[in-house]
Amino acid sequence: MAVHKLILDDVFDDISYSLIAIHCTLEDYRLAYLINKYLKTRLARRSKDLDFDNGQSAYSIFEWEDEKQLTTWSLVSNTCKTESFQQATFESLFENQEKITRITHLIPEYKRVNYFLKIENEFSLSKEKYILDSILEIPQIATAYSVDANDLKSKDNLIFS
User: Fold this and answer.
1) What is the pTM of this model?
2) What is the Cα–Cα distance from 75 to 73, expressed in whole angstroms?
3) CA angle 126, 131, 133 (to 5 degrees)
4) Band of residue 91 on the pLDDT scale cut at 50, 70, 90
5) Which of 70, 71, 113, 124 is buried most deeply by CB count within 10 Å?
């Protein structure tokens, strides 16, 4: 009797998407509004944020599923700031608590990036360039550029479903 062996390693790696890094100081809702305005998209806030480390860090995410183009757009924050209070280590007459702010990144290789725009579809280079140029037209955005997701060590963090 013949034994058949299925190898599925390459099946899951073929999901293609474009990844655009965005540098700006805007709040997430304001950036989503401006992208909707300039690119004619309909990004809307997800009811739940991306949750990592069992609630230790959460990243805001806006999504839009374009059913005409069979494309999913995701705008996700790259930074998460959490504040906690820790009892002071020195003795004092007053109760002292130190406020500690911990900053984590969704993609640690790009710590200076504020947001990532992930577009799940196989675009031609001209379409991706058009999207990038449209994003760069937004006056509040300092810079934006394409990122090769295959070079990322933490590309598993970009799986949002």
Assistant:
1) 0.80
2) 7
3) 90
4) low
5) 113
